[in-house]
Every structure is written in C-alpha cells, then in structure tokens.
Design brief:
about 130 residues; about 65% helix; globular
C-alpha cells in the first residue's frame, strides 16, 4: 500500500527518519538536516535558494540519494514534473543498488526509496 504525501510532508518524514536513526548528520547528507541552508529555504518556500544549495551539494557529493531526493522534491514543488521524476528514479535506483553494511544504513536506504516511490506513484509513474 502506498500513501500519498505532499512534497513537504515527505521531506519532513525523511528528516524525522534521520532524526530517529544514527548517521544523518554526516557531511554528505547536509540537505536533509533541519537548520541547513537548503532545507530551511525549502521549508520557507524559497525554492530558488533551496535548489541552488542542493545543486551545489550534488556537485560536492555526487550520487548522494539524500541530495537527489531534495532536488526531486524541489523540482516537484516548482512544477518541473519531468525533472522531479528523473531525480526520484535516481533515489529509487540508489535504494535498490545499495548494499549497506549496517541495518541502520539499510533501513535509511529503504525508507528513502519508499518515499521516492510514493512520490512517483502520486505522479502516476510506476516505481518499476
């Protein structure tokens, strides 16, 4: 069963997940931590600043699914559906391809992939 969430609700869910599990405050995951420039801008609805911040993080941390998820959410919030779909699919693929070394890493990768799939489903796009 897939639940449909708004982009903000899903981002908040990922932040909650990160707050409840160890490891979400590493420097490679700055985009989902409350109090960071990109996340705070996104939550204020300042999508231009959020996107600039997340794209800068993407250059610094390529293939980071947390950063990709934030970019996807920002694209979705600004009506760039095709770009959002492309980035959600990157997150989904990352969750499927990751071979985490700990249960915590596996749970985070799975939760992020599920959230990406929920967004795709709400956009009438298959998660396959």
């Amino acid at each position: 069963m897939h639940l449909n969430f708004s982009a903000r609700a899903a981002s908040a869910a990922v932040v909650l997940l990160c707050g409840l599990t160890a490891g979400c405050t590493t420097t490679t995951e700055t985009g989902v931590v409350p109090g960071t420039k990109g996340f705070d801008a996104y939550m204020r609805g300042d999508y231009t600043t959020a996107m600039q911040t997340f794209q800068s993080e993407e250059q610094q941390y390529p293939n980071n699914p947390y950063v990709q998820f934030n970019i996807a959410d920002t694209y979705a919030a600004t009506g760039h559906r095709d770009d959002a779909i492309r980035y959600y699919k990157m997150v989904l693929a990352s969750g499927r391809e990751t071979y985490p070394t700990t249960i915590t890493e596996a749970n985070k990768a799975e939760a992020l992939a599920i959230a990406a799939c929920d967004h795709l489903t709400s956009m009438s796009v298959s998660c396959n």
